[in-house]
């Protein structure tokens, strides 16, 4: 533990007692190494959507590992679970028939989309179209393009300029996007990135009509629209596979990860609309663009993803996420009258945040919640995050809310 480069590695209590060293998970509960049980308010980090400890997923991984763990899919080869997964994703993608580019996680998916968006315009002979536009409050992972595209100041600072030709707009203002594109010149802008529901920035649903407005602006100016659905994809937003579909949006790329495998194994996927994917097929060489990772199309990861999609379908978990939208709203909304709380944000599937007036109060509230048996985290600037597994019951959501109120009272 002492050698782990991790915020907790200096906390003596962790090493002594095993508190917060999460050792086991089952359904919506996790246990730390001291044996203490927590109700998991965040499904790991918005990923364990089918719940922890699912034997089907462990079995799918074991079976595939014994058949073929992995083989290069960089160019020449594929494997059966990857072929099945790409077919299934083409069927559920917000743009039907999307081509799937598999990665090892969300940050890889974002980098892939950023590179392919630029390359798309190069392939069209429009090499000046290089700017990529992100938003305030946005989170797009930790690699170079994604970090500098993001809008959470603490994540961006301290590196100098990571990536040239990037710009930021206010997260909720479509007119700011239009003005920025006009200032840069549409002939210089490749793509616009947006999380349909802002996640790590604090769980902000899009303002009404915002997504349709920015889609329209991108279409008018010939700019690719990248929906970063690393958090919102695979049902988290309730009642639909993707937030884009729920909001009637047709993105050019969808970046995904997390819920693809419910986090049982790292994997991400970029779903690319057919019209955008088309120029990347080199007819002469009979292959796709030269971009890929050793583990793009990892067979065990793809087998787990397929088994995870099976569970989501068979147990109607997209509907369960929609149910959680209602139960989170009715359980958490009453907290809005608490002296420490400025706002409760729900109404976007199985995600919600309780916003505190003072940013500094979030850490003690979260710590108190852990003490009382709820594992959660601070989100955005002074928010407390709720993004449970889709299998959480309404009673358990009620317990989350009760414990949140107790923790808020203790922090008064
Ligand atoms: N994009 C968004 C919207 C995310 O929320 C995240 C992770 N929280 C990422 C990208 C990066 O994903 P990963 O941590 O798997 O690299």
UniProtKB/TrEMBL annotation:
Gene3D superfamilies: Aspartate Aminotransferase, domain 1, Type I PLP-dependent aspartate aminotransferase-like (Major domain). Belongs to the class-III pyridoxal-phosphate-dependent aminotransferase family. InterPro entries: Aminotrans_3 (IPR005814), Aminotrans_3_PPA_site (IPR049704), PyrdxlP-dep_Trfase (IPR015424), PyrdxlP-dep_Trfase_major (IPR015421), PyrdxlP-dep_Trfase_small (IPR015422). It comes from the Bacteria. Pfam families: Aminotran_3. GO terms for molecular function: adenosylmethionine-8-amino-7-oxononanoate transaminase activity; pyridoxal phosphate binding. Keywords: Aminotransferase, Pyridoxal phosphate, Transferase. This is Adenosylmethionine-8-amino-7-oxononanoate aminotransferase. GO terms for biological process: biotin biosynthetic process. The keyword Transferase applies. It comes from Calidifontibacter indicus. Coiled coil: none annotated. PANTHER family: ADENOSYLMETHIONINE-8-AMINO-7-OXONONANOATE AMINOTRANSFERASE. CDD domains: OAT_like.
